[in-house]
Amino acid sequence: MMVNNSTDCREILQIITSCNNVVNKRRDKAGPGEVSSLSREERRRRRRATQKYRTAHATRERIRVEAFNVAFAELRKLLPTLPPDKKLSKIEILRLAICYIAYLNHVLDA
């Protein structure tokens, strides 16, 4: 690019200076003592340490556990046990379900 007069030089210098200011502002956003070029793992670790992230994660976990418990309750209703109101652990429910499915399969094969 050919520069003909001092006005063009000033315009180009102004553009270059403004670009440098943008870069410096981005670096300044990182905050005092922080390096803006954190690794992916460090950024993830910092994000996960925030209260907002922990609250959202705890909420998702509660929803997941509740859905899990509802599914076990529904499965428990389908399984025959004596006495019918006997309290079973989750592993006992799964074992009983496996045995019941095997029994139903045997009945269908016969």
UniProtKB/TrEMBL annotation:
Gene3D superfamilies, per database record: Helix-loop-helix DNA-binding domain
Region (Disordered): 26-56
Domain named BHLH: residues: 52-104
InterPro entries: bHLH_dom (IPR011598), HLH_DNA-bd_sf (IPR036638), TAL-like (IPR040238)
GO annotation terms (biological process): cell differentiation; nervous system development; positive regulation of transcription by RNA polymerase II
Domain of life: Eukaryota
Keywords: Developmental protein, Differentiation, DNA-binding, Nucleus, Transcription, Transcription regulation
GO molecular function terms attached to this record: sequence-specific double-stranded DNA binding
Basic residues: bias regions: 43-56
Membrane-spanning intervals of the chain: none
Record-given protein name: BHLH domain-containing protein
